[in-house]
Amino acid sequence: MDFSKGYYKFFIDQQLPDLNSYVNACRGNSYKANNMKKKAEQVVKLCAERTLQGVKITHPVFMRYTWIEPNKRKDKDNIAHAKKYVQDSLVKAGILEGDGWKYIIGFEDKFEIDKENPGVLVEIVEIY
Questions:
Q1: Rounded to an integer, what distance in angstroms lies between the CA atom of residue 111 and that of residue 35?
Q2: CATH superfamily for domain 7-126
Q3: How do the pLDDT tens digits run along the chain, 128 residues long?
Q4: Which of 12, 16, 78, 93 lies 20 to 30 A from 112 at CA?
Q5: What angle in degrees, to the nearest 10, is found between the helix axes of 30-51 and 83-92?
């Protein structure tokens, strides 16, 4: 894949758990909530590694998320909670060095509707 220096993107081809689903899982059974997080992170990791083969980002980044939903039933803040899964997965995959203040300077969320192709477009911009 040909990337411009310092710009990377990948697509997660499914919806990730929203905040309400995660909170409900926590209330019911902490193991269920943990499994939900692990499954989401595995999906993200596979999608990221498929596209960003061998990429190791060493500079701070700004991240853009385009949340593509099949409808408008969920609140935007509940949907965007899933950036936690994305950023944790990128660290575990070794693509990002970390996900704290030193490594991620900020992020932006956009929302779109597409009944046929829900998912998440993740764009990563290195800041030099």
A1: 26
A2: Holliday junction resolvase RusA (3.30.1330.70)
A3: 444 579 999 999 999 999 999 998 889 887 888 899 999 999 999 999 999 999 999 999 999 999 999 999 999 999 999 999 999 999 999 999 999 999 999 999 999 999 999 999 999 999 98
A4: 93
A5: 60
